[in-house]
Amino acid sequence: MPESLPTDSVGIVTPQTLHFDTPINLACNRTLDQYDLVYETYGTLNADASNAVLICHALSGHHHAAGYHSADDRKPGWWDSCIGPGKPIDTDRFFVVSVNNLGGCHGSTGPASINPATGKPYGPDFPVITVRDWTQSQALLADRLGIQCWSAVVGGSLGGMQALQWSLDYPDRIRHSVVIASTPRLSAQNIAFNEVARQAITSDQEFYGGHYYEHNTLPRRGLMLARMVGHITYLSDASMGEKFGRELRDQAYKFGYDAEFQVESYLRYQGERFSETFDANTYLLMTRALDYFDPAYEHDNDLAKAFMKASCEFLVLSFSTDWRFIPARSEELVNAMIAARRKVSYAEIDAPWGHDAFLIPTPRYTDVFHAYMDRVAREVGA
Amino acid sequence: MRTDLKIIEQWINSGSHVLDLGCGDGTLLDYLQREKQATGFGLEINQDHITTCMGRGVSVIEQNLDTQGLGNFEDHTFDTVLMTQALQAVRRPDMVLDEMLRVGREGIVTFPNFAYWKLRWYLIRRGRMPESETLPYKWYNTPNIHLCTFKDFEALCYRKGFQILNRTVVDGEHQDHWLSRLWPNMLGQIAIYRITRKGG
Fold first, then answer.
1. Integer angstrom CA distances of residue B170 from A182, A272, B180, B185, B191
2. Judging by DSSP bridges, how do beta strands A35-42 and A95-99 pair with one another?
């Protein structure tokens, strides 16, 4: 944390946990009898509970979206650039809820949690969770928090898919859906990258079919590889070029296979760090949730038909150099919304950072986001 | 509100579904939404305008008419498709008009009249490409690459089989003036046309 708190920070925040003991039915036809959801809130819920905003996280995200957990924290939450006083999601006006999704590994019930039926971690027996399961659990969380209708559900990437799913599953509980750097469904190439990541994990000898907890080990190498592959897809050729180029760690080639280029050592470092802090089974689960997301599928593969169900307004944003979910995928969403006569605004933000651009505040991104959310706030009297 | 926008407003029925090509800062759509319960979208490429639209609750899509066209809109989606002061700046005005009347039942178009007497006089006197308050550019940097006269536009409508439902001319300040009504092609600066496909 900086010496003193920036004035546009939500400050020190404390995660909270809610226990749910009513069984939840999942898309895979299984149920979870009980589970915990960990979440953070920023700002104050107004008297008529109309100013609530739900933040949905992406693959490796979690509930800690803004502020610091303690004065010793090196970095703030993952979306601190967009959440705080005076920021696009202005905590002086909105009551922001950010939840760790079911199946996650940051406090909400997931594969690493103890299965009450066996007294052991769920491991690979944890049900495969879908985006729809998440919106269902988020709706149950909203019930407990006294929020009948979100002024906006906001998310980037996999988080954007949740914002979309909300508009379809709970049309009367969401006023605005903000879908950033997302897609209506994964392409074959997207699924292929996920499969490489999963293969890296499951073929690690330390994976033990997902039961590594009982062997007191972690599939570090597999998860590291998965993260390295994933990380490449989050960046752009140009941004990697600018950051690393062909820079070497030492002066000359060593004619060996150690990490000689800066980009190699960067990826290895990121992968290693990730493999120590993220659960491999959760990574498998999250990538599968991405693969399965396909709202058009249930509507004769007609996305416009799916959006007929929605009644909220949409903001869709894409980034020019995002090659994971290219702007054309966002435009598919927009065109389906137009065909369904939904209200939608769309902008393609020129930014060099690839898919990760949704986490990086650039002037135009911030301006557009700010303008839209300002209008949402005015609409709900916040 | 500008006179030309007031005129356009009168030609739009309550509750219409409207597409505004080059919607600018969304002034007209905002007005139509509030006063006429209209729905619809604006297309725009100017970043600041897009931000302003979003801030005022006008649905705006970042889309370039020249490179992307209107292919993403299905036939007969809109009651009215608007295009104010942009026809002369697109690559193929004839194709844009076709597209407007494909996705919409009616089109409303405004554009500057290149046969306006001051422009004619400028060309005769100086022998150089006219410049004016409405056309303040040099020939080499002007965005207005397809200037036409009222007569040109009407000839195109005739050839395309478009029916002109209404026609009004205003001056550079967008004011209605009896003189410009008297002899539009000579005295009118800006034209406002409401068109539809014959039999459509």
1. 46, 69, 7, 11, 6
2. antiparallel
**Chain A residues near residue B52 by CB distance under 8 angstroms:** 371
CB A269 within 8 A of CB A259: no
Contact A372 B39 (CB under 8 A): no
Provide the CA A270 distance to its chain's centre, in angstroms.
18
Residue A259 C-alpha from the chain's centroid: 30
Query: Could you write out the DSSP letters of every residue in B133-194?
Result: SSS---TTT-S--S-B-HHHHHHHHHHHTEEEEEEEEE-TTS---HHHHHSHHHH-SEEEEE
Q: Assign residue B64 a region (left: φ > 0; alpha: ψ between -120 and 50; beta: otherwise).
A: beta
Cβ neighbours of residue B74 closer than 8 Å, sequence gap 6 or more: A339, B103
Per CB-CB distance under 8 Å, the chain B contacts of A372 are 54-55
Three-state DSSP class for A301? coil
pTM (2 decimals)?
A: 0.95
For residue B109, give the H/E element and its range: strand B104-112
Quote the Cα angle for B66-B71-B74, to 5°: 140
| pLDDT digits 0-9 by tens, A40-82 | 999 999 999 999 999 999 999 999 999 999 999 999 999 999 9
CA distances from A94 to A179, A310, A317, B195 (A): 18, 23, 21, 46
A64 is catalytic: no
Quick one: pLDDT at residue B53?
Answer: 98
Low-confidence ranges of chain A (pLDDT < 50): none
The residue among B30, B58, B59, B79 with the most chain A CBs within 10 A of its CB, best to mutate, is B59
For B39, nearest residue in chain A (alpha carbons):
A343
User: Model confidence over B112-122: pLDDT tens digits?
Assistant: 999 999 999 99
* Residue A52 bridge partners (DSSP): A95
End-to-end CA distance of chain A: 29
* B chain contacts of residue A346, beta-carbon cutoff 8 Å: 60-63
Q: Is the pLDDT of residue B173 over 70?
A: no
Q: What is the enclosing helix (H) or strand (E) of A334?
A: helix A327-339
Q: Is A322 a catalytic residue?
A: yes
ipTM of the complex: 0.92
Average pLDDT, chain A: 97
Contact (Cβ atoms closer than 8 angstroms) between residue A132 and residue A169: yes
| Cα Rg of chain B (Å, integer) | 17
Check B61 against A315: CB less than 8 A apart.
no
CB-CB neighbours of B77 under 10 Å: 20
Amino acid at B94: D
Rounded to whole angstroms, the Cα distance separating B106 from B32 reads 16
Instruction: Answer positive or negative: Cα dihedral of A167, A159, A360, B72.
Output: negative
Q: Which of residues 16-35 of B touch A (CB under 8 A)?
A: 17
Chain B environment of A371 (Cβ under 8 Å): 51-52, 54-55
